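We both want to read discrete structure tokens more fluently, so let's practise on a single case. Once you have written the record down, we can walk along the chain together.
***
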Amino acid sequence: MIWWRRKNRIIGAIPRNPTMAVPSVSLAIIKDITRNFSKSNIIGQGGFSIVYKGQLPEGRTIAVKRLKQTALTTKGKNDFAREVEVMVGLRHGSLVRLLAYCDEGTPNLRASLDWVRRLELLREIAHGVAYLHAGSGESVIHRDLKPGNILLDDEWKPKIADFGTAKLFADNRTGHDQTIVISPGYAAPEYVRGGEMTLKCDVYSFGVILLETLSGQRNGSLQRLLSQAWELWEQNRIIELLDMTIVPLPKSEPEILPELKRCIQIGLLCVQEMPDDRPAMPEVVAMFTSTTSQIDWPRRSVLDSRIVMPLNLSLELDTDHLNPTAIEVRSPSSRSSYCCLASNQSN
């Protein structure tokens, strides 16, 4: 949205949208007048938007309100449309005046990431974690695997980032931490209970990321996603976990369904309660590589059988610190994360 600070005429050069009483403006123009949304141009922000100072070619100063990534849900977009409609009819010397609006920019990432691409992302992330654990000549535990620490480049290739909490284990495969550093929802049970840190903690975190990627939901500190996944698995209804509201299964690719079920099975193997029951990351890579070989049946611990409120599997996307509670996706150069496939619903 663009406001003028004083009552003035609307920019005549901007074409009008026939369905609106105010003109629409391109994202390119807004980037130009705000110096590409420069931080130095920020004049205010709230929970859902940031306000930038902009300068028109003739030198007049305006304010540009930009919705945050976390506000780009269906509700957020509806609220935005209502705000525009309300401001269209307001004319008073003490109120800002709406000059124009822009409805373009970041696409719905969840919709653009189809099932084939999601599976490929998960395979490549698994390869990356396996390399940390066994492929570099050392055993490196990342310790904070989560969507916000996985970046996507211009070719949609995942890049694992943020090694500030990583630990190197050459011989001793077990360590203990006095302070919990893993983000809630991604920390293995043994780490939360006693600070025990092994390679299997990363395996657990990867399993959570996998289930979030396929379900479009956040796990959160209450483990609601995992509890729901186990319930559906035991009832042979695991397909209901898939984010089909946003990304329908392609009728032209019926073979993708068994692959998705197998992928969820891999995820549940990774989030089993006991570390010894979880596969090593090289084994996870092998499971992804061969889609016909038999894999173990995941076993749910009694500790995981608590009753929880059902998930709303049709919740909209977006981002937590990014943004992962959405997969928000940024390129490594812009530090955007793999947070756009899961909902921004915190627990």
